[in-house]
């Protein structure tokens, strides 16, 4: 399991370095690939609903929700996240799985709703 997570992180890093992704400003002045890279601790939980969400993932998601909530959605729906194994229907539940109180409950993120 750990080797798969390491592989996914390595794959995401390579993809981020090789690809220029435009999030149409959803992440403010932060490039979407930087925002996505900051969420690398969430890779396992973003692809597996039964995986424990690492505390560092919760910290990063909470910070992103606080500073740029639309950015989290942009990252989750981005082609680079999908390529890294993120499943948006599962990843959208991470704020709830982290017990983040000020998550945008009921907000749409693509065809998904934040629980």
Any overview of this molecule?
- α2 packs across α5 and α4 crosses α5.
- The relative contact order is 0.18.
- It is globular and about 30 Å long.
- About 8% of the residues have low confidence.
- β1 and β2 form a beta hairpin.
- By secondary structure, it is mainly alpha-helical.
- It has a two-stranded antiparallel sheet with strand order 1-2.
- The chain is 56% helix and 3% strand.
- It is built from eight helices and two strands; from the N terminus they run ααααααααββ.
- The longest helix is centred in the first third of the chain and has 17 residues.
Q: Could you outline the blueprint of secondary structure elements for this entry?
A:
Elements: H1 2-18, H2 32-38, H3 43-47, H4 55-67, H5 69-77, H6 79-83, H7 88-91, H8 94-97, E1 108-109, E2 112-113
Antiparallel strand pairs: 1-2
Give the strand order, joined by hyphens, for the main sheet: 1-2
Counting DSSP H or I runs of 4 or more residues, the number of helices is: 8
The percentage helix is 55-70%
What is the overall pLDDT average? 85
Short description:
This protein has 115 residues and is mostly helical.
What descriptive keywords fit this protein?
115 residues, single chain, 8 helices, mainly alpha
């Amino acid at each position: 399991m750990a080797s798969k997570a390491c592989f996914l992180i390595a794959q995401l890093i390579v993809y981020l370095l090789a690809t220029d992704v435009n999030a149409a400003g959803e992440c403010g002045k932060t490039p979407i690939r930087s925002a996505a890279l900051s969420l690398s601790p969430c890779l396992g939980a973003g692809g597996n609903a039964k995986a424990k969400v690492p505390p560092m993932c919760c910290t990063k998601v909470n910070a992103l929700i606080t500073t740029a909530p639309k950015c989290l959605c942009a990252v989750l729906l981005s082609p680079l996240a999908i390529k890294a194994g993120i499943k948006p229907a599962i990843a959208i539940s991470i704020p709830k799985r982290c017990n983040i109180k000020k998550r945008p409950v009921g907000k749409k993120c693509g065809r998904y709703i934040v629980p």
